[in-house]
Amino acid sequence: MKTSLTVAALGAMVALGGCKADPPGAMETRVVVAAKHSLFVHNKSEKNPLPDTPETVAAGKEAFGHYCAACHGIDGQNTGVPFADRMSPPVPSLASADVQRYTDGQLKWVIDYGLWPSGMPGSKGMLSDEEIWSIVRYTRHLPPAGSAGEPEMYSH
């Protein structure tokens, strides 16, 4: 638990380093989204080996809470994350059509390697393949925005 909080705090500090005073403009956002899409050709056909079961989704939710919620919120939709819209590009809602249209293999690749120049760090070597695949399962079953509360580190 202590290690998870440390990792989350470090992730938040890295993410805050990418913050800026004004939200990115439409052109900046379009350029980054186009760059992401060209990168996502990697692992497009890789299939998630974990079954789509409530147990796998629950394991993914737990791993997501430890490693991803600092930037994406507990619900994957940035709820309670004070800097999400100030990142360049903004932290995407994982429930958005833009994210949900990626294959499971593409999402795993992003979690493994991160996205440069965004604030998304890679986690290869920090998370097991099983943890990553379970996180991918969780992103396919996100709760409604705001229904899961906010990350504890931002609660006042």
TrEMBL record:
Query: Mind telling me which InterPro entries this protein's record contains?
Result: Cyt_c-like_dom (IPR009056), Cyt_c-like_dom_sf (IPR036909)
The protein's GO terms of the molecular function aspect are: electron transfer activity; heme binding; metal ion binding
Q: Which Gene3D superfamilies match?
A: Cytochrome c-like domain
Q: Is Transferase set as a keyword in this record?
A: no
What SUPFAM superfamilies does the record tag this protein with? Cytochrome c
Keyword match Signal: no
Identify the Pfam families for this entry. Answer: Cytochrome_CBB3
Keyword list (alphabetical) reads: Heme, Iron, Metal-binding
List residues of the Cytochrome c domain: 55-143
- List the protein's name: Cytochrome c class I
Species per Swiss-Prot/TrEMBL record: Granulicella tundricola (strain ATCC BAA-1859 / DSM 23138 / MP5ACTX9)
